[in-house]
Design a protein that fits this description.
Layout lengths: L13 E5 L3 H7 L5 H21 L4 E8 H6 L2 H13 L1 H8 L2 E6 L7 H14 L4 E9 L1 H14 L11 H6 L11 E4 L18 E4 L9 H20 L1
Helix pairs in contact: 1-2, 2-4, 2-5, 4-6, 5-6
Length: 237
């Protein structure tokens, strides 16, 4: 059990997680298919929610599945991912009794039953104190375009008089706090893969060498401690 959580420090308000490495984890474990890694990775989201609750981190955005991966991966693998997204993830959030679910991405790329399962979970968890956004069928550039379009349609943005970044931010999908303070990427990859480029424009980035299913609360505490150290140094500068 980690002891870092009891150390006074600066906490990020909003954490983004790129949960990468499920397929590699399955291969290293000698499992017959990538699906086993994806299932373990999906189940692991429940652990993450619990760890963040214990550390008073109330806003999460989790990169689940990109629109690009839907187009490029095999139909069998994508079909299994759709099943996890429709059956496992909404249940995890609902059982928490704390997290309100939000979805960011092009849900028209999902089977209708999966999109509806996510919509039901959004409705049933509405009004809860903490917020988790699942980036599903997600494309970062399309996300920005959607935010601009929503701001214009709401009358909060007039392209003729200039673009207000704050209005765009306010109309992006997700929970009430849009700006991300800390992005954690697992599996050692040194890239963000199009993950929330607008919301994470000023975020600290922590790369963990662990594959997502092996990422544990000690690794989370390391990322939070790194964030605190950088934030303290920036404040003192």
């Amino acid at each position: 059990m980690s002891t870092l959580r009891t150390t006074p420090r600066i906490l990020p308000t909003h954490v983004g997680v790129v949960m990468d490495g499920n397929r590699r984890w399955a291969r290293r474990a000698g499992l017959p298919s990538a699906s086993e890694g994806h299932r373990r990775g999906a189940d692991h989201v429940e652990d993450l929610l619990g760890w963040c609750e214990a550390r008073a981190v109330d806003h999460l955005t989790i990169y689940v599945l990109s629109a690009d991966n839907i187009r490029k991966r095999s139909s069998d693998e994508v079909g299994f991912l759709f099943e996890l997204i429709g059956e496992v993830l909404p249940g995890i959030v609902d059982r928490s009794n704390r997290w309100a679910l939000h979805v960011s991405g092009d849900t028209s790329l999902l089977p209708p039953r999966v999109a509806e399962a996510l919509a039901r979970a959004e409705r049933s968890t509405d009004g809860r104190d903490a917020h988790v956004t699942l980036a599903i069928a997600y494309d970062g550039r399309a996300d920005i375009v959607a935010g601009v379009r929503a701001a214009i349609l709401a009358g909060a943005l007039d392209p003729a008089t200039g673009l207000d970044p704050g209005a765009i931010t306010d109309h992006l999908p997700g929970g009430p706090v849009k700006e991300i303070d800390l992005v954690i990427r697992t599996s050692g990859e040194q890239r963000l893969s199009g993950f929330v480029p607008w919301q994470a424009a000023h975020a600290e980035v922590h790369v963990s060498p662990k594959l997502w299913p092996d990422f544990d609360e000690t690794d989370l505490d390391l990322a939070l401690a790194q964030y605190a150290a950088r934030a303290s140094a920036a404040g003192a500068a």
